[in-house]
Specification:
Layout lengths: L6 H12 L12 E5 L6 E5 L7 H18 L5 H23 L22 E2 L1 H14 L2 H18 L4 H4 L9 E2 L2 E2 L7 H5 L5 H9 L1 H10 L7 H22 L6 E2 H11 L2 H7 L17 H7 L4
Antiparallel strand pairs: 1-2, 3-6, 4-5
Length: 303
């Protein structure tokens, strides 16, 4: 028979759990960690709305709870990799469900359509670790050496360039092969959320200098399904908050190419240092554009 716990004891236990939540650089806390004293089940809730739409807040909280369930009382590199793969799959399932509501033929994206693969790509450390682990387990030694060389070349060519400069037919994704994604199974979350309404428009936006300049200046010409993009932002937010606030891991955004280069050149020391709470990916930091009004509007972030 379960022992009954008084309201004061339950409240004290929950308050004790909250003390393990870490604040961000601005001293804010976005998650509250709870544990039911009777069952021992741990879960988190948002302390306030992150997004304007409630379904996004629910998705973000769900992603954070997935992190809690996957990592338990202590994260490891292997657990984080599995968590990232789980979150990647969940993002695709959610995006597919949202796209299923679209009119037949409305989705322009298809195999061999690579117009969105010529720009800087932001990833979280778990995504970078999952991609690196996938490469190590699926490629031969010679293939891995070749990929590492391509990554090094791309890193040298794009290092120091702005996101505006990177949006160019001269800078294809290092994992783009014959107009197809060679890491499709573990492609970044942002790639899973992008779905165009007009492939021809995407081509002109990338390859026509005047159209590209107009797009980069004010965003003109971008017609995509908003719901999958907002789903990606919600899941990514939950993942980032879960690992940063609950496990004190550095979840600041990274550039995909820079992160891969760091993992190839730094060896196992990089993930070990990161899982220990150090800023091991500092050299691969990408631009954080979450304060950009355009990005906030697209993602549905609450103001």
């Amino acid at each position: 028979m379960k022992r009954k716990i008084g309201k004061k004891a339950r409240a004290a236990a929950l308050e004790n759990e909250r003390r393990f939540v870490h604040t961000d650089a601005d001293g804010r806390v976005h998650l509250a960690l709870h544990r039911d004293p009777a069952s021992g089940h741990a879960f988190v809730t948002l302390t306030g709305a992150l997004f304007e739409e409630q379904w996004q807040n629910d998705v973000a909280a769900g992603a954070a709870n997935t992190a809690v369930a996957s990592l338990g009382d202590g994260p490891s590199v292997a657990r984080v990799v599995e968590l990232a793969k789980s979150v990647m799959a969940a993002t695709s399932r959610l995006a597919d469900g949202l796209l299923a509501r679209a009119p037949a033929g409305a989705v322009a994206c298809k195999a061999g359509c690579d117009h969105c693969c010529y720009q800087s790509v932001g990833v979280t450390p778990p995504e970078a670790l999952a991609i690196h682990a996938h490469l190590k387990t699926t490629l031969s030694k010679s293939e891995l050496v070749n990929v590492a060389a391509r990554v090094a070349e791309a890193y040298a060519r794009t290092r120091g360039l702005s996101s505006v400069d990177r949006f160019s037919p001269e800078h294809p994704c290092v994992f783009l092969e014959s107009s197809r994604c060679s890491i499709y199974e573990v492609r970044p979350l942002s790639c899973r959320g992008m779905n165009s309404l007009d492939a021809g428009e995407c081509a002109k936006r990338l390859r026509d200098p005047e159209v590209r300049a107009e797009f980069l200046a004010n965003g003109a010409g971008a017609h995509s399904f908003m719901e999958p993009i907002r789903a990606f932002h919600a899941i990514s937010a939950g993942l980032q908050l879960g690992l940063s606030e609950l496990y004190a891991l550095d979840m600041r955004p990274l550039d995909l190419i820079a992160a891969m280069h760091l993992l190839f050149t730094g060896g196992e020391a990089v993930p070990r240092a990161w899982i220990a709470g150090h800023a091991a990916f500092e050299a691969a930091r990408g631009g954080d554009s979450t304060h950009d009004l355009g990005i906030r509007e697209i993602s549905g972030l609450a103001r």
